Amino acid sequence: MHDIHAQRILILDFGGQTTQLIARRVRECGVYCEIHPWDLQADALIEFNATGIILSGGPESTIADNAPRIPDEILKLNVPVLGICYGMQALVNQLGGEVRAQQNHSEFGYASVSVQGNNALLDGLNDSDDKSGAPALDVWMSHGDRVEKLPDGFEIVGTSENAPIAAMAHTDKNCFGIQFHPEVTHTLQGAAIIERFVLDICGCEGLWTPGNIIDNAVNSIRDTVGNDDVLLALSGGVDSSVVAALMHKAIGSQLTCVFVDNGLLRLNEGDRVMETFAENMGVKVIRVNAEERFLTKLAGVEDPEAKRKVIGNLFVELFEEEADKLQNVKWLAQGTIYPDVIESAASSTGSAHLIKSHHNVGGLPSSMRLKLIEPLRELFKDEVRRIGVDLGLPGSMVYRHPFPGPGLGVRILGEVKKEYADILRLADNIFIEALIKHDLYNSVSQAFTVFLPVKSVGVTGDGRRYNYVVSLRAVETIDFMTARAAHLPYDFLDEVSRNICNSIPSISRVTYDISSKPPATIEWE
Ligand code: XMP
Predict the structure, then answer these.
(1) CB-based contacts of 212: which residues, under 8 Å, 6+ apart?
(2) Contact 39, 68 (CB under 8 A)
(3) How far apart are CA 146 and CA 144, in angstroms?
(4) What number of CA atoms fall less than 13 Å from residue 183's CA on the CB side?
(5) Disulfide: which of 249, 261, 354, 460 matches 270 by Cβ 3.0-4.6 Å?
(6) Could you write out the DSSP letters of every residue in 423-471?
(7) How many CA atoms lie within 13 Å of 292's alpha carbon, on the beta-carbon side?
(8) Contact 432, 470 (CB under 8 A)
(9) 181 among known catalytic residues
(10) What is the per-residue DSSP string for 237-268?
């Protein structure tokens, strides 16, 4: 079997907004990579044993005092290097060239870069011809400073209007710099440039494929747990579902899943999870029907954070109760994915302001004394989805919108009651089914319905109605940190509103939430 980690790209992060995108593009070429901070210790750097190195962009100026620097060891290693934006300027600075602040020559957004000379990175790539007939690339730039003088041994391989040195190459050393961002899709040949670097220049073979990732994970899970049993909290979300499928493939009946139905799930969700995993795949799943316990604990609780705590704590309590009943369980499997790993490394160095305490199953108590196994730790969400499909999970589960841990608990404003949850489930189902029917589901990042416990007057036939209000919410976002309300067609919204009011007598009014994030958040609580 292939060692899929043997060929590996190191991405040194200088704080760029798009560093994770670089990693995703490298993975799309079928090559393993990791992101590490620019000040990675020398021994860790050498131990990483990179096949190639990419230096990311960053918000600083390389000519400022105390600007982040490329570790000297990197410049001594004999492996290909690609500097992007800040990464290119840092190379220039540290190798004896010159970077200058050029207020009038900054470039943000679209630019055209004319390709010059012969080099392995850009040769033959072309979006259009420039005025002189030379090949030119449509790229996305974002820089204030610019390179004025190249270090020895480098040649100019790309020029734009405001950056005469927009790309550089030292062919003997396989060292390249580009002022633009190949990781964003606005740079039309960006994916091709990254592919050239990792496959042609670094010589990686593209072994990081879904099939190989699964084989590797299955072997590694078997080696790690041996004959021990493993416990998994299955939520029905993408990550825990893929972990369940993967662990089941690796260790079959040594895996036991606990699925807690807290009464705050979407319509028929509990039954669907049981059908997919227990009935179709033969996974051992213990379903804990705990609606009553959750609703009793939530009675009278109105504050969103207090609700989150009640739900999170009770979840852990129930999970522990089930775990106590099982013998021989030594491991707890979790669906931690690579962005969680990167973010927790970043947040251990900075202080993030708490907007909402996002309860994830990641918060299970250490008192359980179970060893942790996280088979998705190296994967991005799109990779998790791809292996989910390969493992035979239904597309409707793998490509589902995210659903918060506290479920409908944070979509019913104020106190949670069964009556409200039942109404909300029906309305939400109408909205989601309509999105699917009109082929709009995959064009939005997340869609759901919110229950407002206020009454509003309506009229049906000759009768007056005085009933509840729901709000539809659909957003478009890349990272869920910022978002805009999806511009759903009016006719569509009209149809959904009519269907909801006509088929659910206790709802008299439907609204559409058009707030973006910020200043609103995606969920209402
Ligand atoms: P907000 O509302 O903070 O949501 O803009 C951003 C993303 O996070 C999800 N979310 C949660 N996920 N537990 C979770 O596991 C939570 O308590 C929680 N609150 C929000 C939300 O659905 C959106 O995808």
Answers:
(1) 2, 4
(2) yes
(3) 7
(4) 23
(5) 261
(6) HHHHHHHHHHHHHHHTT-GGGSSEEEEEEEEEEEEEEETTEEEEEEEEE
(7) 1
(8) no
(9) yes
(10) SHHHHHHHHHHHHHHGGGEEEEEEE-S-SPTT
Of 321-325, 353-357, 422-426, the range with the highest mean pLDDT is: 422-426
Q: Which fold has domain 8-201?
A: Rossmann fold (3.40.50)
The position carrying tokens 């593209």 is 206
8-201 and 210-398 share one CATH topology?
Answer: yes
For the chain, domain boundaries: 8-201, 210-398, 417-512
Amino acid at 115: V
CATH of domain 210-398: 3.40.50.620
| 257 belongs to the catalytic site | no
Q: How remote is the CA of residue 522 from the centroid of ligand 1, in Å? A: 7
DSSP β-bridge partners for residue 170: 175
Q: Which segments of 325-394 does DSSP mark as H helices, in order?
A: 338-347, 381-390
CB contact at 8 A, 201 and 120: yes
List pLDDT tens digits, range 491-518. 999 999 999 999 999 999 999 999 999 9
Ligand 1 interacting residues, C-beta cut-off 6 A: 308, 355-356, 358-360, 402, 404-406, 410, 446, 480, 517, 521-523
Which two three-digit tokens encode residue 343? 């973010």
442: alpha, beta or left, given left = phi > 0 and alpha = psi -120 to 50? alpha
- Predicted confidence at residue 360, as pLDDT, reads 46
Which residues are CB-contacts of 8 (< 8 A; sequence separation ≥ 6)? 31, 32, 33, 34, 48, 49, 50, 51
Atom of ligand 1 nearest to the CA of 405: 15
How far apart (Å, rounded) are the C-alpha atoms in residues 481 and 382? Answer: 18
CATH 3.30.70.420 assigned to domain 417-512? The reply is no
Which pLDDT score is estimated for 366?
A: 66
CA–centroid distance, residue 521 to ligand 1 (Å): 9
Q: Residue 18 and residue 182: Cα distance in Å, rounded?
A: 10
Question: What single-letter amino acid sits at 71?
Answer: P
